[in-house]
Amino acid sequence: MKKKMLSVLVFGLVVGAGLVSCGGSSEFDNTRNITCYTRDTTSGTRDGFFSGIGLKDAAENNAPLKEGTVTVASNGEMISSLKNDVYGIGYFSLSSLATSDLKGVTYNDVVPSEANVINGTYGLTRNFNYCVRDDFNNSTVGQIVDAFLAYMFSTDGQLIIENEGGIVKTDATYSWDSVKANYPVTTQNNSSVTVRFGGSTSVQGIATALTSAFSKLCGNFVANHNHRGSGDAYKNTQGDNKDSSTGLDIGFASREFNLDTTEPLSADSYGLICVDAIVVAANKENPIEKITDEELVDMYTGEVSTWSEIL
Q1: What distances in angstroms separate CA 54 from CA 116, 172, 292, one per listed residue?
Q2: Alpha helix locations (H) across the chain?
Q3: Whole-number average pLDDT of the chain
Q4: Predicted local confidence at residue 9, as pLDDT
Q5: CA torsion sign, 72 to 77 to 78 to 82?
Q6: Which class for 142: exposed (0-12), middle (13-18), buried (19 or more C-beta within 10 A)?
Q7: In which band, very low, low, confident or very high, does the pLDDT at 27 lie, cut at 50, 70 and 90?
Q8: Helix (H, G, I), strand (E, B) or coil at 50
Q9: pTM of the predicted model, to two decimals?
């Protein structure tokens, strides 16, 4: 199912999965069981993947998944698991594919690529979003957060996102230099001020690159990153944990917020960063090259159990 692209940043998250018998190792035993890997139920990557392939019921619930499905806690753990399992299948953000040493699988006959995300032919996409606190005990932190958001949406910030694997399709019309005078907090020494960032592990690379660049432009504030999953974004900025030891000033989610139910963010405290794509991935020794959404559903629900039923 194709999703309408937004005229903002498109961040590469690609799910490619090609289950056909070409390439791969001659030692591959296609009678072996398929090991399905998934992220935990708070993950935005998981939500994007299962919603995209037509298995929405599994986005936040393990019940639809076959027994033996392996849950991992981050994109990094997903990559590590697939590198060590020739018979595994999983998914993660496209931006991580180039350095993963894994195979990106063609999905519904479309190659996972930045170009295909931009032109709308690649169907496994999702939004990257942010949210901030609606009350700051430290006014300086609040001012730095405001300045950071302005920087993130400037041409300077968007270039950083692009360099971190993002696909830029932007409406940005201003540079940071043209607006920095509107944020006097940037002219003072903020080296003793800590700003807390967290949420989605998929957005962590973008977030750390942005804060690394912006801290130098904003009095050298300390950026504390604690990324454990999209579920932390609301919970630790405006939810029950906002004033706990895990509280955040800015949270990132690689999915939509549940504004009408569990994540009722206040107006003007959240927004879209970019659009991402998800890649279906496998070990390079696995002969899979192409896959469809129907085949993925069958694999994750247990309708098919061995590689011989796919390859």
Answers
A1: 20, 34, 11
A2: 44-53, 75-83, 114-118, 139-152, 155-163, 176-179, 204-217, 231-235, 293-301
A3: 90
A4: 41
A5: negative
A6: middle
A7: confident
A8: helix
A9: 0.74
Written as six digits, the tokens of 181 are: 């005078």
- What are 162-166's contacts with CB under 8 Å, separation 24+? 162/9, 163/209, 164/95, 164/205, 164/206, 164/209, 165/11, 165/12, 165/93, 165/94, 165/95, 165/96, 165/98, 165/205, 166/9, 166/10, 166/11, 166/12, 166/95, 166/206, 166/274
The conformation of residue 205, written as its DSSP 8-state character, comes to H
Please, is 182 exposed, middle or buried when counting C-beta atoms within 10 Å of its C-beta (0-12, 13-18, 19+)? exposed
Q: CA–CA distance from 125 to each of 2, 77, 108, 280, 281 (Å)? A: 8, 21, 13, 12, 15
Residue whose tokens read 């454990």: 228
- Spatial distance between the Cα atoms of 304 and 93, rounded to a whole number of angstroms: 25
- What does the pLDDT look like over 178-234, one tens digit per residue? 999 999 999 999 999 999 999 998 899 999 999 999 999 999 999 999 999 999 999
Q: At what angle do helices 139-152 and 155-163 cross, to 10 degrees?
A: 70
> Which string of DSSP letters, residue by residue, matches 92-145?
EEGGGTTTTTSEEPEETTB---HHHHHTT----EEEEEEEE-S--SSHHHHHHH
Which amino acid, residue 84? N
> In the chain, what is the straight-line distance between the N-terminal and C-terminal CA atoms, in Å?
23
- The CB density around residue 177, as the number of other CB atoms within 10 Å, is 11
Confidence class for position 2, pLDDT limits 50, 70, 90: very low
